[in-house]
Here is the input.
Amino acid sequence: MKELKDRIKFVRTSKNLSQDEFGRIINLSRSQIAGYETGAKNVTDRAINDICREFKINEEWLRNGEGEMEAKMTSDEEFAFLVGAFAAEGNDFKKRIIKAMLEIENKDDWELIASVVERLAK
Here is the structure.
């Protein structure tokens, strides 16, 4: 994809979002997104920053088409992103489990949990 407009559309469609849904996430109107995707409107720095932040996109890729599309996150950033996504999911059962795990202080209990999780992940 040679042009910014194409990369913006690719990000949106790869997330299976309509222009309206994509715009709502980054606080822009559907018509603004359509303008970006057709090249009729200049993409603002704020829009680029918001797209990169909300969708974990590599800014260099979005602006210039260089590098990987997905931004590389530190383990702390990835953890924060996953916790945010988890909280937004609204599953009370999962939230109770995580809350209970956060209250565990015994090292042996943590080792038991780690072994169970490793088995379940196989």
